[in-house]
């Protein structure tokens, strides 16, 4: 402690002051981090001042007992033991000679070198209010008391137990407002939203061109409904509050199918060949529906399809043969609803417009990226948000294993999903 105590104390105090200065920053997250680190360094300094001398004392006992460093249960060799005993004997003899000389008053040093006496004189000159004097005359003798040893052991065990309990009771994660400077409008807005609204948008993202949207429509719909079973998803009559692109496309196809059925019923469109009567007023919706029925893949044929093929069947499933042709038509004709659906297709369907030329509606490529919107509520703090993320993530992982690659996205997932594995 005489040799390293000053260095340890100064280094620890400098680190503590540096982190305490960090608490002046107006960002709650950094302020919390700096204050907790300063407290940790304070206890670290106390532990070093108390435990370090005890470890040195144990090491001295080991050396006197001639035990090896890494294998303390093994006895050292006789040469090392003899050398240590000789050193101890010389040191004791030096102290005795110096003591006898100081009593008789002689100024001659017959035995050990004069450095021993000079060192002893330097020790006597140390004042009690200096760090060396305090360590020599007060602190080190205090540590050797049996009551002090017992108190240190009990205190360390108590601090360890309290720390474990506090760690278990500590809250998980940070809020969004904690990473913004205090007193700023964004921080005030986020605090108000967390307190009064707790409202977050999210998206279920369907990824990868391996998804066959035409044949996996029912699975996609069930996937959406399973996510909506979460108590945190806003629902209307037991279903998600927001429609998504597949349901909007289905609604649009059903509406133009009705116009086509009416035109066939009136005889304006031939039910077998699909030819339209001249000089008859047929709605644009019926013409578009007719064009879609005749388009499937890269083929265009109306014969035998007009009265037999339905854009959407009674079960609400879109005709799989022309699904991607219908996707192109919906994206271009009902473009406003595409943006309302927040689908964010990538790649987007090809450009197409309805003309009088009888040609196929070009099929779209399967979207490698598309979104299904949801709205979340009652997300009041980090543990609740983590619970929601775990619940929805389990649904997404289950459907990924079933052949529907997907993942959740949104502010709540981007900021808080990192805490899922924090305690695992």
From TrEMBL:
InterPro entries: HMGCR/SNAP/NPC1-like_SSD (IPR053958), SSD (IPR000731). It is a multi-pass membrane protein. One of its GO terms (molecular function) is smoothened binding. The keyword Zinc-finger does not apply. It is found in: Membrane. GO terms for biological process: negative regulation of smoothened signaling pathway. It comes from Brugia timori. This is SSD domain-containing protein. The keyword Glycoprotein applies. Its main location: membrane. The chain crosses the membrane at residues 7-27, 39-60, 150-168. Pfam families: Sterol-sensing (PF12349). Coiled coil: none annotated. Belongs to the patched family. Residues 1-58 form the SSD domain. It comes from the Eukaryota. GO terms for cellular component: plasma membrane. Keywords: Glycoprotein, Membrane, Transmembrane, Transmembrane helix.
